Amino acid sequence: MKQPNILLIILDATRADYCSPYNPAQPSTPALGELAAEGCVFENAFACAPWTLPAMASILTGLYPSQMDIEAKRVLSQDYPSLPAALRAEGYATFAISKNSWLSASFGLTRDFDDFHKLWQVLQTDTDLTQVTLAQAYPEQNLLFGAAKGIARGNPLKNAVNLASRRLKPLRDADYGARRTLKPAQQWIAKQSGPWFAMVHYLEAHLEYKPPQEWARRFVDDWPLAEKLLAADQTRLCYRHVTGVERLTDDELRVWGQLYAAEVAYQDDAMGQLLRWLEHTGRSDDTLTIVVADHGESLGEHSLLNHLYGLYEPLIRVPLVMRGPGIEKGKRVSSLAQTNDIYGTALAAAGATLPPGARSLLDAGAARSWIVSEYGAPRVPHHELLTRYGLRAEDFAPFLRSLQSVRTGQHKLIIGSDGVVELYDLASDPGESVNRVGDAPELLARMQGLLAQWRAEVGLASTEGSAPAARPEVAPEVAARLRALGYLD
Ligand SMILES: [Zn+2]
Q: What is the CATH classification number for the domain harbouring 297?
């Protein structure tokens, strides 16, 4: 059988319930809806982790974050073969395009792609000049010396063009890269004569939510309030809200969610252009297209915003839609699916032998009856950020813990490294508001047993939640780039 091309589209921080195949009241993602009508919707798909680095590492290796120790190491070790490397061994050409700095060579996630297009640069050079622009944006971080070295490295002329282009633009403009994704992806795909694997990563739904104004106006019901939020430092608002220092009002939270919905819709429109081009150029029938979010997003549930500090449903329930050779049209799969199985799915489609433990989502016999998600302990935020956001280190004390959760079709157990245990019946309590840990001992024991079984299966020590680990420092320019994305440590 001919090897299909594989297009893996990652929608960063996109919740399932903000996508129309999952929520008819949210008709904002027609392109995903069209793909769903022609392919298969996984109704209950879950991320392995609630933020980009571990979540993407799991998608690209088939493993769980703690198996790779990626939250402590902050880099995908060479010990774990990644999907692009495995597909290259099967004869595939491989390409990735991203605006998210976690998807860069610094963290190992893009190491094995033949071509990686960094959307944060106008011209593609090996030198990453984000440091230079961040030196301008964050003068207090003393990045200028490193920045000067960066300009001199590699091709100085190209580097100067990248630098000049960034001088003219703010760090976050209305389009966060979605439009600029299309052409490089098309150009690379059009060049291929053999089977190809392209990973296209959209960052529009990631905080901050500042969509083009015409898109915002379609979703917002209080424009003056939206203008206030669009003009604000949303990362500052987010962390002041989450720590309880200064909560957003209910009206502000409603409009916050509407701006997020506008971003999801704008992102879908950009994705639709790529999918239509694939169709018009006769490539879609030979291509396995997989659309998935790396993780979800909190929009006020449990007083959380952004995608940190929790494993509640908004953070781990993600859209997952596939279309392509061998996939039944209009199918909806209700059994549980976990995003690390995308690895085995792609390998199986390519005709490769699956490594032990890997499974394909297209193999109904390999469906999961429970899924596991993990969150590594965050650290106290950098002191400069505390100053900028008007916060104290102790405001973050309740959040400095790791979490593990196990979820069946109906129940969910979350265990924190601080000893806090939460147990929910999702059938009667989808909002996870009634902790049943004290009144359902048999259920608690059953769920704890599943988590213990998972730890044994993946070869982890049988401790409940891992203790916060010391982490290596990342280069200052990379840290600064991530802080611009709203990551605090
Ligand atoms: Zn992400």
A: 3.40.720.10
